[in-house]
């Protein structure tokens, strides 16, 4: 399977199982989105410990403290209902077992029941520019496992690749904002996007 196929223009509707959930696993083309396992901690530590990955997120610190990957795995496996996390796993197609991570975090669910979540994702640098993030976002939106009416996303303005992933998946630009990045230890300008599903 070639890694250099960019997913932005691909029509995934014809791919068997794409965006379908079977036993908690979502079909995503060249890989699946599966629940986090304890054995993922080592690769999470290696990938999330990369400054480029950490600085593209709000919450991953750099350097990554000892035990941070294991704590992330424990939280992801807790299934507290607020956030669901999936691993981009390409092992069934001859790719790496962990290509990246994608998540949906519920927004104001208990208080307002708005059926809204925020999507977040990162892909390991070795797999950048392969279309994996686009495939993952499209599969998760198609599956809509939380039965959302709206999914929001936020990307740093110095990361236009992530913005393209969102627009290619049908997200609409909502506006500019800023947020704090732990790895950068500063506030960073962001672009906010939304995708309506109802």
Automatic annotation (TrEMBL):
SUPFAM superfamilies: Acyl-CoA N-acyltransferases (Nat). InterPro entries: Acyl_CoA_acyltransferase (IPR016181), GNAT_dom (IPR000182). Coiled coil: none annotated. Residues 97-198 form the N-acetyltransferase domain. It holds the Pfam family Acetyltransf_3. Gene3D superfamilies: 3.40.630.30. This is N-acetyltransferase.
């Amino acid at each position: 399977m070639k890694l250099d196929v960019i997913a932005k223009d691909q029509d995934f509707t014809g791919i068997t199982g794409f965006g379908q959930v079977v036993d908690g696993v979502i079909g995503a083309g060249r890989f699946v989105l599966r629940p986090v396992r304890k054995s993922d901690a080592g690769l999470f530590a290696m990938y999330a410990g990369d400054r480029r990955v950490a600085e593209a997120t709000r919450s991953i610190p750099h350097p990554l403290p000892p035990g941070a990957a294991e704590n992330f795995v424990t939280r992801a496996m807790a299934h507290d209902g607020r956030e669901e996390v999936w691993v981009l796993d390409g092992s069934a197609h001859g790719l790496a077992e962990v290509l990246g991570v994608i998540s949906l975090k519920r927004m104001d669910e208990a208080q307002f029941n708005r059926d809204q979540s925020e999507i977040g994702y990162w892909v390991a640098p070795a797999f950048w520019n392969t279309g994996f993030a686009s495939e993952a976002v499209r599969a998760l939106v198609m599956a809509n496992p939380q039965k959302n009416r709206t999914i929001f996303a936020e990307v740093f303005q110095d990361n236009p690749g992530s913005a393209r992933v969102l627009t290619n998946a049908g997200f609409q630009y909502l506006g500019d904002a800023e947020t704090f990045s732990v790895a950068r230890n500063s506030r960073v300008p962001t672009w906010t996007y939304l995708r309506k599903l109802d």
